[in-house]
């Protein structure tokens, strides 16, 4: 038994080392810190990561946070009211919009362990959440993104960075749960630095208020960041980056506006994870849809395009697992018709779903 236990530990350490070697991001979960805090500190407390403005921490400059879940004597943590880390005890936190200060932004940056090789393909991923209904996150916005550069970027104060990121969330994002963001990039330069934050000026920000606060702002917690080289011989369809179960909704919203749900297809799955791709199967004519799955919006007010939108969801045994297509308009050629591809393990199906202003087309997932 002791030998088996030693072998298990050895295999675990080997697997962790392999993962760490593959990931070009050191301290991916912000756990290596100078000292445990009472809950909040500057990024200088975190190994390898740094504040993109590289200046003194005063109210005149962007000051991203190291958020630490310090245990209290009763077992709770100081930050229970605000957030729970995706893993471990720490996260990073940045303000991405502030109502009282125009164009206020915060960014965190890190130097990758080695340069990205030109022509090679990399998968970048991280987890984000807006926290738990508090002053740290009561506004949903678009614009959060990831920027890869050859040299360090630098803020002068708290202004938005003007470099164009390789990835940016176009739609309003708001979630009180951790959501994984993943995208692939083929390196066209020898990128060495990664920066995370909101890259839009206030003029281009789309926002939605979810809760009242005396100092309204949008705040993103960040955890478990990775940049990993992948097989560049694999061909990928042109598609938008993955946003996993991204959208939460206002509490008092009327959900389907009284429309009936018409289950038009069923899809049998053999894995718990399901990949969805949705696009306009005809000429792009202005169809705008939302997708709802198990009583949550996973896509809101999306204009169908030829380019495929990719989303990942998980099968939930205790739910009906019905994917509902809600049409906000009918485009130029009614009814609103969306092409959809569902993939679970080796099972893959293409379908067309129709919705109009009286009913919502739907697909039920069965196992």
Topology summary:
Elements: H1 2-22, E1 40-42, E2 49-51, E3 65-68, E4 90-98, E5 108-111, E6 121-129, E7 139-141, E8 144-149, E9 167-168, E10 179-186, E11 193-198, E12 207-209, E13 217-230, E14 242-243, E15 260-268, E16 273-280, E17 288-293, E18 296-303, E19 309-314, E20 322-327, E21 336-344, E22 347-355, E23 359-366
Parallel strand pairs: 15-23
Antiparallel strand pairs: 1-3, 2-5, 3-4, 4-13, 5-11, 6-10, 6-13, 7-12, 8-9, 8-11, 10-14, 16-19, 16-21, 17-18, 17-20, 20-23, 21-22
Describe the structure.
Mean pLDDT is 81; it is low at 1-20, 233-238 and 245-253. This protein has a 7-stranded antiparallel beta sheet with strand order 1-3-4-13-6-10-14, with no helix packed on it. The chain is globular. 6% of the residues lie in helices and 40% in strands. By secondary structure, it is mostly beta strands. Strand 21 (336-344) and strand 22 (347-355) form a beta hairpin. The protein has one helix at residues 2-22, and strands at residues 40-42, 49-51, 65-68, 90-98, 108-111, 121-129, 139-141, 144-149, 167-168, 179-186, 193-198, 207-209, 217-230, 242-243, 260-268, 273-280, 288-293, 296-303, 309-314, 322-327, 336-344, 347-355, 359-366. The chain folds into 2 domains: 11-234, Galactose-binding domain-like (Jelly Rolls); 260-366, no CATH class.
Protein traits:
23 strands, 1 helix, disordered N terminus, 7-stranded antiparallel beta sheet, 367 residues, single chain, Jelly Rolls, 2 domains, mainly beta, 5-stranded antiparallel beta sheet, globular
């Amino acid at each position: 038994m002791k030998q088996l236990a030693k072998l298990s530990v050895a295999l675990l350490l080997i697997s962790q080392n392999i993962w760490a070697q593959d990931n070009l991001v050191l301290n991916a979960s912000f756990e290596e810190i100078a000292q445990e805090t009472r809950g909040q500190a500057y990024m200088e407390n975190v190994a390898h990561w740094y504040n993109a403005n590289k200046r003194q921490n005063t109210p005149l400059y962007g000051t991203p946070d190291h958020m630490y879940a310090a245990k209290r004597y009763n077992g709770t943590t100081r930050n229970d009211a605000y957030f729970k880390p995706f893993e471990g005890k720490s996260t990073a936190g940045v303000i991405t919009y502030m109502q009282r200060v125009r164009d206020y932004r915060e960014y965190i940056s890190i130097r990758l362990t080695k340069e990205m090789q030109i022509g090679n393909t990399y998968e970048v991923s991280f987890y984000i959440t807006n926290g738990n209904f508090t002053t740290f996150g009561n506004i949903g916005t678009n614009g959060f993104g990831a920027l890869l550069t050859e040299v360090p970027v630098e803020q002068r104060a708290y202004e938005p960075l003007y470099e164009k990121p390789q990835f940016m969330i176009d739609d309003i994002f708001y979630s009180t749960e951790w959501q994984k963001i993943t995208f692939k990039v083929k390196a066209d330069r020898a990128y060495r630095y990664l920066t995370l934050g909101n890259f839009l000026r206030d003029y281009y920000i789309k926002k939605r208020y979810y809760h009242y606060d005396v100092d309204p702002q949008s705040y993103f917690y960040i955890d478990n960041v990775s940049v990993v080289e992948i097989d560049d011989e694999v061909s990928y369809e042109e598609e938008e980056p993955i946003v996993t179960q991204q959208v939460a909704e206002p509490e008092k919203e009327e959900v389907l506006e009284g429309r009936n749900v018409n289950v038009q297809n069923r899809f049998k799955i053999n894995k718990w994870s399901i990949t969805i791709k949705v696009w306009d199967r005809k000429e792009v004519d202005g169809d705008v849809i939302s997708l709802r799955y198990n009583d949550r919006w996973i896509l809101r007010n999306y204009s169908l395009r030829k380019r495929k939108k990719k989303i990942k969801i998980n099968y939930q045994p205790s739910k009906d697992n019905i994917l509902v297509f809600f049409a906000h308009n009918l485009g130029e050629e009614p009814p609103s018709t969306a092409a959809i591809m569902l993939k679970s393990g080796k099972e893959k199906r293409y379908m067309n779903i129709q919705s109009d202003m009286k009913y919502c087309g739907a697909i039920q997932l069965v196992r």
